[in-house]
Design a protein that fits this description.
Layout lengths: L1 E2 L6 E2 L1 E7 L6 E10 L2 E2 L5 E3 L8 E7 L14 E10 L16 E4 L3 E4 L7 E9 L5 E6 L6 H13 L1 E3 L1 E3 L2 E3 L1 E11 H9 L1
Parallel strand pairs: 10-16
Antiparallel strand pairs: 1-2, 3-7, 4-5, 4-6, 4-8, 9-13, 11-12, 11-16, 14-15
């Protein structure tokens, strides 16, 4: 038991020690908090921490309230390890077969730029999508962007969220393509005014 962050009373704290017994670096994982083996109606907690090969990590989680991931008797707490993401050594995942490629579910496919360009431009970026559906790495394939636009494209790509690729029923890291539309802020304001 520890002091509640609000200073009002006490709360239970779970201390979880995770050990990496593989020869690969772990770069993320998800934890599922249950009570007496009954699943809670909440999403698992993704944790983005590195665990070196044959190393360990101590993770602490406070029990909160009925809106938390962990509700109930702390003595009956069960923690399940869910998805584990390992660092790809070469990240050449396109050569591996997948049952489903990454699917863009949220993110800005349209970018409003400050560059005064009368034409709407389209550009494709390659995104290495993690098992958590986040952009791990972005490569801009369009070569004629200005530095300012390239920076905006990179920032937008890293904000995208995906359904990860699936292989044999499990999420895997995989490269996907995202086509972005770039509109000049000046052109957009003219279009809205008309």
């Amino acid at each position: 038991m520890v002091n509640h962050p609000s200073g009002e009373g006490f709360v239970a704290k779970a201390i979880i020690i995770l050990t990496n017994t593989s020869g690969q670096r772990i770069i993320g994982f998800s934890l599922h908090f249950t009570n007496n083996g009954k699943e809670q109606p909440y999403e698992p907690i993704p944790v983005f921490s590195q665990i070196e090969p044959f190393g360990s990590l101590t993770y602490e989680k406070l029990q909160e309230d009925d809106l938390s991931y962990w509700v109930g008797d702390p003595e009956k707490l069960i923690v399940k390890l869910g998805i584990v993401e390992v660092e790809e050594q070469d990240e050449k995942t396109d050569s591996k077969h997948v049952d489903r490629k990454p699917i863009l579910i949220a993110g800005p496919p349209t970018i409003i730029t400050d560059v005064d360009n009368p034409d709407t431009k389209y550009g494709t970026v390659k995104v290495l999508v993690s098992v958590f559906g986040l952009a791990k790495k972005v490569i801009i394939e369009e070569a004629d962007f200005s530095d300012k636009v390239r920076e905006q494209v990179l920032q937008a790509a890293y904000k995208c969220r995906f359904r990860p690729a699936i292989r044999d029923g499990q999420p895997v890291a995989y490269w996907g393509d995202v086509t972005m539309k770039m509109i000049s802020r000046h052109r957009l304001s003219t279009f809205i005014a008309s």
